[in-house]
Amino acid sequence: MSSVLDEIFDKDFTESNFGFRKGKRQHDAIKSIQAKLQKDKSWGVSIDLKSFFDEIPHGLILKLIDEKIYDEQFVTLIARSIKAGVIVDGQFEKTTKGTPRDMSSILCLKIWTSVIPPCK
C-alpha cells in the first residue's frame, strides 16, 4: 500500500522535503540547509514535532488522498487503516485523529507536510 501511494504522491513533494524519500538522505538535508544558510539566510530553525503522528486529522488526510486516488476500495482500505482505533488499558477507543505507527503513518506524514508551504 505504501509503495503505491509513494509513487502517486512523491512527485508533489518539494525539493526541500527529505523525510523518508527514495534517494534522499539525512546528509542531503543537512547539505541543503548549509547551502541555504551560506547563500542568503542568516538563521535556521530546528523543530521537533512531539506527538506529530497523534495529531494528523483523519478528515483532512483522507481528503488529500481522495483527491489523487480514484479507486474507492483502495481509499476505503487506507481509511480503515487510519481509523482503526487504539486499545488503551485493555479498552478499545475510536480515534478521529492520528495514524498508526507503521509505513502508512510515514506516508501520511509526507502527504500532510506536502501541503505546508516550504520556507523560502
Give an account of the 3D structure:
By secondary structure, the chain is mainly α. The protein has one domain (2-114). It is built from 6 helices and 2 strands; from the N terminus they run αααααββα. The protein has helices at residues 2-9, 26-39, 52-55, 58-66, 72-82, 103-114; strands at 86-88, 91-93. It has a two-stranded antiparallel ribbon with strand order 1-2. A hairpin with a 2-residue loop joins β1 (86-88) and β2. α1 (2-9) runs parallel beside α6 and α4 packs antiparallel against α5 (72-82). The protein is globular, with a radius of gyration of 16 Å. The mean pLDDT is 77.
Approximate strand percentage:
5-15%
Strand order of the largest sheet: 1-2
Give the helix proportion (percent range): 40-55%
- Shape from CA axes? globular
First-residue to last-residue Cα separation: 33 Å
What is Rg?
A: 16 Å
Order of helices and strands: HHHHHEEH
- Helical region count? 6
The helix/strand class is mainly alpha
Domain unit count: 1
What are the low-pLDDT stretches, counting only 5+ consecutive residues below 50? none
Number of strands: 2
The biggest beta sheet is recorded as:
2 strands, antiparallel
If you average the pLDDT, what whole number results? 77
